[in-house]
Amino acid sequence: MAISPFKFLQEVRSETAKVTWPTRRETTITTIMVFVMVALASIFFFAADQIIRYLVTLLLGVH
Predict the structure, then answer these.
(1) With contact defined as beta carbons under 8 Å apart, do 26 and 33 qualify?
(2) Alpha carbon distance 14, 16 (integer Å)
(3) Interatomic CA distance for residues 51 and 57, integer angstroms
(4) Is-contact 63 57, C-beta < 8 A?
(5) 19: number of CA atoms within 13 Å, CB side?
(6) E strand or H helix at 59
(7) What are the pLDDT tens digits along the chain (63 aa)?
(8) DSSP character for 22?
(9) Which residues are CB-contacts of 30 (< 8 A; sequence separation ≥ 6)?
């Protein structure tokens, strides 16, 4: 069952009209939260990496 390109574009436009787009404030808050979570995750993984490095060095006796 083939659909014409014109009909397809009409349906895409009607579906796009139904989308609820975020406000500028919602986008800004979400972006800030992403940066905060990235910073927290990087601090956590840095600390975990340093602890693991210390333990492996201690276990293997390498200086």
Answers:
(1) no
(2) 5
(3) 10
(4) yes
(5) 8
(6) helix 24-60
(7) 678 999 999 999 999 999 999 999 999 999 999 999 999 999 999 999 999 999 999 999 986
(8) P
(9) 22
Q: How many residues does the chain have?
A: 63
The answer to whether 22 and 30 have CB atoms below 8 angstroms apart is yes
DSSP letter for 62, please. -
Q: Which amino acid appears at position 4 of this protein?
A: S
Pull the structure tokens for residue 50.
């340093």
Of 56, 33, 36, the C-alpha closest to 44 is 36
Going by C-alpha positions, the residue among 49, 53, 36 that lies closest to residue 62 is: 53
Does the pTM exceed 0.90?
no
